[in-house]
Amino acid sequence: MTDHALLLVNLGSPASTAVADVRRYLNQFLMDPYVIDLPWPLRRLIVAMILIKRPAASAEAYHSIWWEDGSPLVVLSRRLQARVAEQWSEGPVELAMRYGEPSIDTALQRLAKAGVRRVTLAPLYPQFADSTVTTVVEEARRVLHSRNLPFEVDVLPPFYDQPEYLAALAASAQPYLQQGFDHLLLSYHGLPERHLHKSDPTGSHCLKGADCCQRASGDVLASCYRAQCLRTSSGFAERAGLSDAQWSVSFQSRLGRAKWIEPYTEASLEALAKRGVKKLLVMCPAFVADCIETLEEIGDRGREQFRAAGGEELVLVPCLNDHPQWVAALVSLCRRLPRGL
Ligand SMILES: C=CC1=C(C)c2cc3[nH]c(cc4nc(cc5[nH]c(cc1n2)c(C)c5CCC(=O)O)C(CCC(=O)O)=C4C)c(C)c3C=C
Ligand SMILES: [Fe+2]
Ligand SMILES: [Fe+2]
């Protein structure tokens, strides 16, 4: 069978580090109602305000991490696509970005031209969030409908607790853990608390007690990003042979004034340094490819914050990128887990 395609989808990056390109990208990203989940007029107003200063600041940050062949996130996702294509014998492997290029629309049209019959859509996010997974699925649904594409489509669900994924994460971190360290911080992309309340199907879970995410199960666990981050963390720590005292979890990349899920990475970096941690490892398991949020926010600014608070060395553990065990895990997950769209 060679007519079963795989469509890998990551978040996307600006086309270049020019302020105009960063503004265009941020506008598309932040106007997504799954990202800023407010009624259109209010969202338009807030995004217009963000777009006054942020494009220039973000362009500078992108410039500091940009590679000769483009955005790290896009370059690394392309490498992953190439490695996965070597193992996916069922059909073509395409890559799309939710924002910017190549779009989901372009990729699905390419697959239609290639004559595929079935598409497995793989959002490259281990943990569920409306702002990542749902928006990818809904955009694919919109394109399929508006272009009347004839595919059978299934979707890789979040794989935050899947053994292949956790084993790949542990294998990729192993060389760094072996170097010795005082503490490991698992820093995940943050989310506004409001998003967690919205996705909670019971209306009774989420942030109402200190350990609510730790105790989550069933439908609640399936929709709670924070709970899934905690599961990834404990699953990873168990496989890596870490004791509870050796690691902790935090959430980075806050934007705006709303309350985001805690603890915040900035506060954790400072608290760990003040507690006497000298050598800190940081992993970012919400991202499967290194990007501005890992390289610049943690690798540059986070390192400075940690040192300013008295820490000595912050080592950023690379994301899974195109690690061979991750490539094999992703192929295996895409064969084993997908459910109908
Ligand atoms: C309301 C704002 C945002 C939400 C919600 C959000 C969720 C979210 N994002 C990722 C993954 C990535 N985000 C990236 C960059 C980025 N994220 C936001 C805002 C929200 N993200 C902004 C404004 C930016 C742009 C950079 C900046 O100006 O600071 C990236 C990196 C993209 C790159 O080009 O490198 C990723 C990846 C997840 C996983 C997530 C929810 C869990
Ligand atoms: Fe983000
Ligand atoms: Fe929760």
From TrEMBL:
Pathway: Porphyrin-containing compound metabolism; protoheme biosynthesis; protoheme from protoporphyrin-IX: step 1/1. HAMAP family: Ferrochelatase. This is Ferrochelatase. It catalyses: Fe-coproporphyrin III + 2 H(+) = coproporphyrin III + Fe(2+); heme b + 2 H(+) = protoporphyrin IX + Fe(2+). Its main location: cytoplasm. InterPro entries: Ferrochelatase, Ferrochelatase_C, Ferrochelatase_N. NCBIfam families: hemH (TIGR00109). It is found in: Cytoplasm. Belongs to the ferrochelatase family. Keywords: Cytoplasm, Heme biosynthesis, Iron, Lyase, Metal-binding, Porphyrin biosynthesis. Fe(2+) binds at residues 189, 293. It is an enzyme of class 4 (lyase). The keyword Metal-binding applies. PANTHER family: FERROCHELATASE, FERROCHELATASE, MITOCHONDRIAL. Catalyzes the ferrous insertion into protoporphyrin IX.
